[in-house]
Amino acid sequence: MPAFSRKWVMALVVLAIVVPLLQPLFPDLVSDYRLFLVSTMIIAAIAVLGLNLLTGFNGQISLGHSAFYAVGAYTAAILMDRLDCPYWLTLPAAAILSFIVGYLFGLPALRLEGHYLALATFALALSVPQILKYKWLEDLTGGVQGIVLSKPEPPFGLPLSEDQWLFYYCLIVMLILYWAAANLLNSRSGRAMMAIRDYHIAADTMGIDTSLYKTVTFGISAAYTGIAGALSASAVAFVAPDSFSFFLSIKFLIGLVVGGVGSLAGSVVGGIFYVLVDNSAQALSTYIKSDLGLQFDLSAYTVFGILLIVLMYLMPTGIVGGVYGMMRRLRRSS
């Protein structure tokens, strides 16, 4: 990571730590709802980061990451609701179980490439919500009604609201996972992952165990997304099968493409983008109907489609790639 990038990252981290503490001074600007919204952006960024490790850095296309997100969320929900497990202990459990599911799914997926692999993961995304509704699992998963939880309370008597603590909790987890991903990609294993992405036949010829790296990367990617799902269960305090539909996988993929495929910073930008659009589409639709008097129902998917077309035309390498390109051109011209 370039020096200027590290400085910007550190500045943003310090800003993220300080801003919630200003809530007593600016209660409207730094409200609990806005902190909760930022927490959901952080969770989405972790999920997109997991997808990026698989698709952006290993070259395997997935349309089924909503399934791993559901595995993580339900693991956390069941542990907290049925076994009264502390919320922080659900993260490693969700990561381990999601890794196992991702690794096992990656084994048969070794025989698939390109759109065939995408179709297989698409089938996974469609099947998991239906499995969660299965009547024999209702006692465990709550069936179509889902599971209602309680938000995590600040530990050690910290003078923070639930949403403030949730924000810091999600931020700490994201920073750890971001650091782990950066170190992984800078290691020998990371270079092997990217070699498989660029030219898997040459990587195989050079002695890289492509089968092992593909399945393990699938597991790691699923573990990241499962952790995001576990955080989502604590943040929203509710899980239900219909929350993990195939369209959630599409949102992750849109966030990845918009932020920047093969860019860790792009994962964060992509997570922020998809949550912002998801939460702003309804408000924009209401504005069009009430203020402009137009009978036009603007769904989140319509906004996603329009913005995706515009951004791909203006910034084909994603927002982060586009910003880096503009900065390079400015440095050359100066």
UniProtKB/TrEMBL annotation:
GO terms assigned for molecular function: branched-chain amino acid transmembrane transporter activity
CC per GO annotation: plasma membrane
Parts of the chain that traverse the membrane: 37-54, 61-80, 86-107, 114-132, 165-185, 216-240, 252-277, 298-324
Keywords from the named record: Cell membrane, Membrane, Transmembrane, Transmembrane helix
Compartments, as annotated in UniProt: Cell membrane
Keyword hit for Cell membrane: yes
Membrane topology: Multi-pass membrane protein
One Pfam family per UniProt: BPD_transp_2
Keyword Magnesium belongs to the record: no
Major place of residence: membrane
Protein name: Amino acid/amide ABC transporter membrane protein 2, HAAT family (TC 3.A.1.4.-)
